[in-house]
Amino acid sequence: MSQSHRIPGKGLLIDRARPVRFTFDGRAHEGFAGDTLASALLANGTRLMGRSFKYHRPRGVMTAGSEEPSALMQIHEGAQQTPNVRATVQEIYEGLEARSQNHLGPLSFDLLAVNDWMAPFLSAGFYYKTFMWPRAFWEKLYEPAIRRAAGLGSLSGRHDEAVYEKAFAHCDLLVIGAGPAGLMAALVAARAGADVILADEEVRMGGRLLADGAEVDGQAGPDWAASVVAELASLPNVRLMTRTTVTGAYDDGTFGALERVSLHRAPGDAPRECFWRIVARRAILAAGALERPIAHPDNDRPGVMLASGLTGQMTRFGVNPGRVVIFSNNDSGLATARSLTAQGIEIAAYVDPRPIPVTEDFPVYAGAEVVGTRGRLGLRDVAVRHKGGISMIEARTLALAGGWNPTLHLTCHLNTRPQWDEKIAAFVPKPGAVPGLEVAGAARGRFSTAACLADGAQVAGEVLADLGLRAPDVPVPGAEDRPYGIAPLWAVDAGGRAWLDFANDVTTKDVKLAAQEGFRSVEHMKRYTTQGMAPDQGKTSNVAALAVLADATGQEIPVTGTTTYRPPFIPVSIAAMGAGGRAEGFAPRRLLTSDARSRAMGAPMIEAGLWSRPSYFPRDGETDWRTACDREVRQVREAVGVADVSTLGKIDVQGADAARFLDFVYTNTMSTLAPGKVRYGLMLREDGFVLDDGTCARLGPEHFLVTTTTAAAGLVMRHMDFVHQAFCGGWDVRMASVTESWAQFCIAGPKAGAVLAALGITADLPFMGCAPVTLGGVAGRLFRISFSGEQGYEIAVPTRYGAALFDRLVEAAHALDGCAYGMEALNVLRVEKGFITHAEIHGRVTADDVGLGKMVSGKKDCIGKAASQRPGLTEAGREQLVGLMPVNQGEVLSAGAHLYNERDPAVREHNQGYVTSVAPSPTLGCWLGLGFLKDGRARHGQVIRLDDGLRGRKVLVEVCDPVFFDPEGGRMRG
Amino acid sequence: MADLIATPAVTGLPLAIGRVTLTAFDPGPVTAIAPYPGRDLSAVLRFPAPGEVIEEGARRLIWAGREMAFLTGGPAPDLTGLAAVTDQSDGWVWVTLAGRDATAVLARLCPLDLRASAFPLGTSAKSVLQHLSVLLVRTAEDAFQIAAYRSMAGTLVHDLSAAMQAVAARAAL
C-alpha cells in the first residue's frame, strides 16, 4: 500500500524523487522529502493516528497546520522522547521514529477504549463528583489511576541533551505570517527600506495561496508568492524566517518566536529549535484565519477533517482524500467543493443548512445537516438529514467547513478582548490592542484574496508613515474577491455526542452540563469542562464552545464573551526557552587563581557565591572530610595555614567625600580611621537589619578599600551605588569593584610571620594595619587581619600572579609544618572564635541581635539607623546570638535545629530559638554551635535542648558566650 | 625571592568555528577613570559620552558604564582631584569575536540591537552575554571585543564557543 493515496502530479512541497523511510508504531513507512508525518501517513492510507485524551476514541488528522488538535504523536530520538508532537507540523526524515499515544495494547484495539462505553458517566466534573471519599484515597489511588488512563504522551525521564538555542533579533517591522496580506505588507515595507523580519510557521511562504488554488495577477498563487519571496530574499534589509511561529506578544514591542531549526532532520550538531526574542518598532499580524469544525454526532472519526485541512493536505502533499462529503455553512466550503470537483475529486455530497440553489456539478443537500458518521477505525458512511429524510452516504473523507476565526491570538496577549463581528460570525481583533501591533488581512476578518493583498499593502503604508518612511508605490495585484456568506451553525442537535474540543474530548453535552450546573461564565465553563486547555489551546474549538454556551444560557455571543488567549500561541519546549541553561549552564562558574593547584592537591570543590572553593585538602590516609578538617584546624592553631580568600568582594572607594560617604553606609565611623589602618565594619539595610559585615582599609587620605562577604559582594556594591545615587549624588565619591583585580590569600597561625619572611616580606605590621608591599617583583598589598583568631595576614597581588603566589605560599607553609586549608577548616576556625557569617546575618537580625549593638554609632546617622530603632527591633525577648556546647561532650550538633527549654515539647509555641552554624572543634574537643536564643545573652550557663526534627536528634546543650576560644584575642593581636 | 610568573587570563584560544574566530586580546594596562562631579578633564583627556569609544593614537578611551571609562593603550594619567582612578588590568578577560557570522553568534547570547544603525563601529556598550555581565566594543563591522570578569573566563569561552558551533551547524544544514 506504499503511497497508494497520492494524486499523481500533485503536491507543492514534496519531492517525489527523494523517498524517505520512517516508522510509525514500529512499522516501516515511506513518504517523500517534504512530507509531514500526517501527509505521509495519509498518503499510505493510514487515517488512524492516535487515541483521544479521555475516551480513547480513534483519531486521525483534522488539519494541515499547527492548530491540529487530534493527530498528536510521540517522537523517539535515542534517549530523547518528545510527546504531543503535531503530525501536521513534524516533517519526516530518514529514520524518524514516531509512535501513537494514549493507548493500552495496539492502537487499533485500545483496551482503555472501555472509557468510551462508560462515556455516559464520564461527563465534565465526573471525577470531582465521584471520587470524593474516602478523602485519603484521592491522592494515593484515584488520581494516579485517572492519570494513567487519561493523558497524552510521556517523557523519557532522561535529560534532553540535544542542542537548543536562544537568540535575539531587532527590526523596524516584524510581519507575522507570509500569506497574501503578510507578503504584500513585507514587500511594501522592504521596498521602503525598513528593516523587515517576515516570520512564517510553514516551510514555504505563501499561506493560503499554497492551498486554495487562487490566482494573483493571472499567476498561480504559489508562483506569485515565490516571486515575492525571491525579491524579499534578495534585499539586504529583509530577514525571512520560515518554520518560525511567533508565540507571544510582550511589552515594548517584544515578541517571542519558536523556530524549528533542524526538527526536520535527524538529530545532529545543529540546534533542534531556537527560541527568538524579536524586538520590533512596529509589527503587523497577518496570521490569517483558522477554520472551525461543526459539532455533529460522531464528528471525531478518523477521516473527518476541516475543509482547509483537506485542501492543505491535497495541494501541498498530493494526498488523495477519496470520496468526499462536505458539510459547510458558508461560501468558502462551497468554493472548496467546486475546486475539488474541478480537480477530479469526487464530491459524494455537499451538505449545507442554508437554502442554497442546487445548481452544481455535484450532489447538493441544501437545508440539510450531517447527523452522524459510521466506521469503527475510520469514516465509512456519513448520515445526512435532509428534507427527504436521512441518507447514508459512503465517503472516505468528511470535510467540515464551519466558517473562519481570524487568528487574532497575539492581539489578546496584553489582555485585550476581541470584538464580535456579526457579519462574519467571528471575533475580530480590537484595534490598538497591543501597542505597535497592527492587524492585516484575514486576521482581521478580510477573507478574500484581493482584500488580503490590498489590506497588507495599506496597513504597511500606515506603519511606514508611523516609522517616518515613505511608502513606495506598489500596485496591488488583482485576485478573487468573493463575498463571504455564512449562516452560523455551531452544533447539530441530533442526539449522541458531538465534539467541540477534540484534543481534550469535550462535547456539546459537557458545555451544556456546565451551564446547567451553574458554570455559566465562559471562564468557569472552560475550567469545568477543560475545553481549550489541551496542547492546542482550543484553536479550533473555543468559539464554537462559547457559542454553545451562549445558546445554553440564552445569551448572545458578545455577552458571553471569550476566554483569555495567553502566550504561547503554540506549545514551546522548555528546552528551547532555557537553551544554554542545562546543568552547569545554569550559572557562570567563577574560578580562583588557586583552582588548578587546589584540584591537583585533591581538594573537593564546593560552590559559594558562584565561586568554586576548595572544601579541604586531603592528605594520604585521610578518607573523610572530618579527618582533613581537624588536621587543618590544628595546623593553623599550632603552625600556619594558607587559604585563598579572593572571593571576598572588594570595592575601591575614592574621593574627597569618601570618608563621609563610608560613615553614612557603615554603622560605625570610618572617617577617624588613619591611613594604613583597617577597621571591622557593619552595614545595615534601609529597614534596619544587618546587610553585611567586613573590613574597611584606608589606603590613603581619600582612598579606601571596602571588603564584603563572598555571597554579598554584588549586593553591597548595588547597595552602595544606590545610596550614592539616591542620597549623595553630588558628593565627591566614586566606587569601582576591584574584586577580580586582586588575588588575595590568608596566612594564619603562630608561624604566619615566618611564611611572610620566606616570601621576603618583613612583617612589622601592627594588628589591623595595612601597607603596600613588593614581592617577587610585584606590587601587592598586605593586611593584618584575622578571621581565624590566630595571628593573621592577608596578602593581595594582581590576579595574574595569584596562581604563582599560591604555589609559593603552599610551599612555604608546608616547610613550616603548615598547610593549605579549605572552607571546612575556615568555618571551624571562625565558629571557635564566634565570628559571624551570612548563616547568622541572614537578613532577619539586628546589630544588637548579633551582639554588635555598640557598633551603631550614636554620634552620627547611617543608613538603617532610624529603622533599627523601631520598637519591634529593640524590645526585650528578641533572639540573641549565643554559643552552644553539648553537655555530653561526644554529642553532635546540627544547624537548622530548634531550641527548647529542657522539658518543653518541640512545638512552635515553645520555640526558644534556632541553630545557625555548627562545627566539630578539635581545639575544644567537642561540637560547637552558634544560634539565636530568646534573651540569649542573659541565659549563659543555662542548659536547654537542641531538637533537630529532621534528623531525629535531641541534644542537651549549655548556653555560653559565642566566643569559645581565646576570648581576649591575645593570639591574633600578639 | 624569584619573580612571580603571570598566568594568562584565558586558555584554549584561539578558536575558529564556521565563519567566526575567537581570539584572546591583550589590551595592556587598563585604567578605570571615574570623574568626580562637575570636573573638567579636557586638559588631560577627552572623556567619552555614553557608548562612545575615543581613539587618539595608541590610546583608547572606552565608555564602560555610568560615569566611567576604561583607558587602554597608555599609562594612567595624573587625574588627582579630577577623577577616581583604579587599575582594572587584572579584573577582566578580553576576547575578540570576528568573522562573517560574529553578529549572529553574539545575537545568541546578547540582547543588544547589534544592527550597524544601533551599534555602529567604534561604540561600546555594557550588556549581558548569557549570564555574564560584559563590556562590548565594536571594532569592525564584523568584529567585537568582549570584556568579562576574569574569574568567569571559562564560562565566557564555553558560551561563545557553543554559540559558534550552533551557528556553524545551522549554516551547514
Automatic annotation (TrEMBL), chain A:
Coiled coil: none annotated. One of its GO terms (cellular component) is cytosol. It comes from the Bacteria. Residues 880-966 form the Aminomethyltransferase C-terminal domain. Residues 496-580 form the SoxA A3 domain. Keywords: Oxidoreductase. The keyword Oxidoreductase applies. One of its GO terms (molecular function) is sarcosine oxidase activity. Residues 597-860 form the GCVT N-terminal domain. InterPro entries: 2Fe-2S-bd_N, BFD-like_2Fe2S-bd_dom_sf, FAD/NAD-bd_sf, GcvT/YgfZ/DmdA, GcvT/YgfZ_C, GcvT_C, GCVT_N, Sarcosine_oxidase_asu. GO terms for biological process: tetrahydrofolate metabolic process. Belongs to the GcvT family. This is Sarcosine oxidase subunit alpha. It comes from Pararhodobacter aggregans.
TrEMBL record, chain B:
InterPro entries: TrmE/GcvT-like. It comes from the Bacteria. This is Sarcosine oxidase subunit gamma.
